[in-house]
Design goal:
alpha+beta; Alpha-Beta Plaits; 2 domains; four-stranded antiparallel beta sheet; 4 strands; rod-shaped
Length: 209
């Protein structure tokens, strides 16, 4: 083999070595990117699992409570009537003057729970009013006050006017019609006193179904 042929063989060998190294480096970088992506994905899954694990400890008691207190399915109209009768009876026991009451249409937008709702406008002393409101908050019966507005009574400064919406969550019977009967007409009563301007709006709270 001549000197020139030897140089060509060495040149081709060097070129092949360089190309082989370039290919190896590229393959290594691609593999490294894949490993990095898999690592990021694994870290994300670990973070999600950790978050779920930490939340479990905070909700397990609530889930146990819900299991123990889950109400039986009921007809919406009967829940309306029971809620209205209970609220009216407690208002009478607290010696409140009921100016107006109204059974509102049931809220049936929930997938597992529906809500019966009643609205009251009452007048009474502070102690009587608070005693009545405390009777409307019954967590283990899924009853709660969802809207409340207080204002001073213009005729008697020892009394307070109150407008409140109380609701009760219930499980509808399977196959119960989506449309409830028309709510009953509000009872006649004295015209409510005008509410002074500048009072705070209605605070509202919701329940998770």
């Amino acid at each position: 083999m001549s000197e020139r042929e030897k140089k060509l063989v060495m040149l081709f060998g060097l070129a092949a070595f360089v190309l082989l190294n370039v290919f190896a480096i590229k393959t290594f970088k691609d593999y490294k990117k894949k490993l990095s992506a898999r690592l990021v994905d694994a870290e994300s899954k670990v973070q999600i699992a950790t978050a779920y694990s930490s939340k479990y400890d905070t909700v397990v008691d609530e889930m146990d409570w819900l299991t123990d207190n889950l109400p039986d399915p009921k007809v919406g109209q009967s829940v309306q009537s029971q809620l209205e009768q209970y609220a009216s009876g407690q208002a009478a026991a607290a010696q409140l003057e009921v100016k107006r009451k109204k059974i509102l249409e049931n809220d049936q937008t929930g997938t597992r729970f529906h809500r019966a709702r009643v609205e009251y406008e009452v007048t009474g002393t502070e102690a009587s009013l608070y005693r009545w409101l405390s009777k409307l908050q019954i967590p283990n019966k899924f009853s709660a006050i969802t809207s409340l507005r207080l204002s001073p009574n213009t005729a008697d400064d020892t009394k307070i006017d109150c407008k409140v919406t109380a609701e009760q969550w219930y499980r509808p019977l399977s196959g119960e019609a989506a449309d409830t009967p028309e709510p009953s007409a509000p009872e006649a009563g004295p015209t409510p006193s005008p509410i002074p301007p500048g009072l705070p709006g209605n605070p509202e709270s919701a329940a998770q179904q």
